[in-house]
Amino acid sequence: MSIFERYLSVWIALAILAGIALGSVAPGLVDLVAGAEFAQVNLVVAVLIWAMVYPMMVGVDPASLKDAVSQPKGLAITLVVNWLIKPFTMALLAVLFFDYVFADFLTPEDAMQYTAGLILLGAAPCTAMVFVWSQLTKGDEGYTLVQVTVNDVIMVFAFAPLVAVLLGVTDIEVPWSTLVLSALLFVALPLAAGLITRRVLGTPERIDAFRDRIKPFSIIGLIATVVILFGLQGQVILDRPLVIVLIAVPILIQSYGIFALAYAAAFAMKVPHRIAAPCALIGTSNFFELAVAVAISLFGLNSGAALATVVGVLVEVPVMLSLVAFANRTRARFAEG
User: Fold this and answer.
1) How many CB atoms lie within 10 A of CB 297?
2) Three-state DSSP state, 286
3) Tens-digit pLDDT profile for the chain (337 aa)?
4) Residues near 199 by beta carbon (within 8 Å), at least 6 away in sequence
5) DSSP character for 336?
6) Where are the alpha helices (DSSP H) in 36-140?
């Protein structure tokens, strides 16, 4: 492993601190980065995520995509967890904690807002960052691409009705610009660039050598993304630390619980680790651009619902890195293939 991978937890911890400090000492710079946004997608973060995703896309062999059809178990686990379990458990945890466990610390209006924000997170499975987590667990690039693509197709049809049922709101407007832009930036364009790169390089040996050279840039992009995300919300963290912690509790329980469920199911069904790890990680992480966009459109920029989706962003990276580490440590327990 490179020095970036070996000490990744240290770099991320330093990036979080640097981001919070940046938000405090250079708010003008943070505001400039925050303003570079289109369709609720921050373009600076988008470029960094693109850089993270591209190395994995170089590894996508089009001939291997047919393997997803011959190995449907991983895809089935992903779909069941993402669409039949995760949204409902997130809603239950939000109600449990905000209406009962933390009731003495919150007003009923705040509790409702935070619950709505977590429901939006639970109903939006991840698109972009999954490729990064898959790469860090040596996941199957082609299979991960198929899983993300199928999830995106289902999201187009299922997100609005699911959110409408769980929130009791009928006028959900899906931000199509956010969905389309994210799909283009984080899936279509990196995939096209990866396929072109493979064609130019030609041989498997040259492709592997090229991936080894660019892999550190993926980790650097991840670290820079963390700095920006925490920089954008650094003042909120400092101003409302208790609220951040309260919102984070059900998110943490949900994240680790969903991962455990999907990972255990993959183990029981003898799914190879290169498929099992990404399929569990997809259900654990969230499409935060979509969740934030809908929260703002429904409840407003300064609402508790929008804040809850932002906390989901802040919690996700450290949580996912801990799960990546666990998946890597347990690789030998899984079936090969």
Assistant:
1) 16
2) strand
3) 556 666 677 888 888 899 889 888 888 888 888 888 887 778 888 888 888 788 878 877 777 666 666 788 999 999 999 999 999 999 999 999 999 999 999 999 899 999 999 999 998 887 777 888 898 899 988 888 888 888 888 887 888 888 888 887 645 566 777 777 877 887 788 888 988 999 999 888 999 899 888 878 877 887 888 888 788 777 778 888 899 999 999 999 999 999 999 999 999 999 999 999 999 998 888 887 778 778 877 787 678 888 888 888 788 888 998 999 999 999 999 977 5
4) none
5) P
6) 43-58, 67-70, 73-80, 86-96, 108-122, 129-136
The kind and range of the H/E element at 324 are helix 304-329
pTM higher than 0.70 for the full model? yes
**Do β-strands 41-42 and 37-38 pair in parallel, antiparallel, or remain unpaired?**
antiparallel
Report the distance separating Cα 323 and Cα 327, nearest Å: 6
Token representation of residue 256: 């680790």
Determine the 3-state secondary structure of 322 from DSSP. Answer: helix
Question: Shortest CA distance to 253 belongs to which of 90, 77, 9?
Answer: 90
Closest CA to 151 of 134, 128, 172: 128
Residue burial 180-197, b: 16+ Cβ < 10 Å; e: rest: ebbbebbbeebbeebeeb
**Is-contact 274 139, C-beta < 8 A?**
yes
The alpha carbon of residue 186 and the mean position of all alpha carbons in its chain are separated, in whole angstroms, by: 12
- The CA-atom distances, in angstroms, between 97 and each of 199, 281, 302, 309 are 52, 24, 22, 16
